[in-house]
Amino acid sequence: METLWTGFLTLVGDAGLNSDLLATYGPRLLAGLRLTLLLVALAMVLGALLSFPIALARMSRNSVLRGLAFGYIYFFRGTPLLAQVYLIYNGLGIFLGAHKSLFEDLGLWWLLRDGFYYAVIAFTLNTAAYQAEILRGGIESLPRGQTEGGLALGLHSGQIFRKIILPQALMVSLRPYGNELILMLKASSVAALVAVPELMGVTRLAFSRTFDFQAYMWTAILYLIMVFAIAHVWNLLEKRLTRHLHRAMPQTAATAQAH
């Protein structure tokens, strides 16, 4: 591994780029990359869990639940993520700081003084609003006959939702979920503004000490690699999960031509 790294630095130097910058800050950039991936993964998973009750409330016949869900989604989709991060980091941080002694007694203050966890909360609340709308759109796109078919089989509403509606809705929503993941990955750079040493945070530190624009160039390359990898993996996943649809399409077309 060290041989590959040394060889890469040599190639960078031969290309006329600043190999000393990479030699000094390369390991830190990779550590920041790992923290970025952890931040995005936590936010997406927690946001997915939170999006289910929000999406159901959004489609509820209860006007109060529907109104609360609409207000939540409208706020987090209608305001900048940066403002949300600052609101939670400063607002929630000040509130929790006022009860510092209580959290110290509970042994939780180490958790609440770290900007990483405030970023996770902000990103989770933000992506939950988008994922709720993605899920709602997927559910509402399904024909009503799916529910009627489940009732004809003697299934109750909970079974129909879990075994028929939800799997198909997730399948329909696969592409929008992939887009949301990529958008969240790129938006994660705002965490650097609340002292989170993720990829962009390390890049800002490197630039502040070297004033070399190549720090941002290497960071942009890392983001491009991550986006390309996610898009490629997502395409493979989508093809695998929807392969039965691709097999059915030629048969449908052939039947239509025969008639």
Could you explain the architecture of this structure?
The chain is mainly alpha-helical and 259 residues long. It is globular. The protein starts with a helix and ends with a helix. The relative contact order is 0.12. The C terminus is likely disordered.
User: What characterizes the major β-sheet?
Assistant: none
Separation of the first and last Cα atoms:
62 Å
- Helical segment count: 13
Strand composition percent = under 5%
Beta strands, count: 0
- Classify the secondary structure makeup into a structural class: mainly alpha
Low-confidence parts: 252-259
Radius of gyration: 23 Å
Compact summary:
It contains 13 helices and no strands.
Helices and strands in order, then pairings?
Blueprint: H1 2-14, H2 19-58, H3 63-78, H4 81-97, H5 100-106, H6 109-112, H7 115-140, H8 145-152, H9 157-172, H10 174-187, H11 199-210, H12 214-241, H13 243-258
Give structural attributes:
single chain, 259 residues, mainly alpha, disordered C terminus
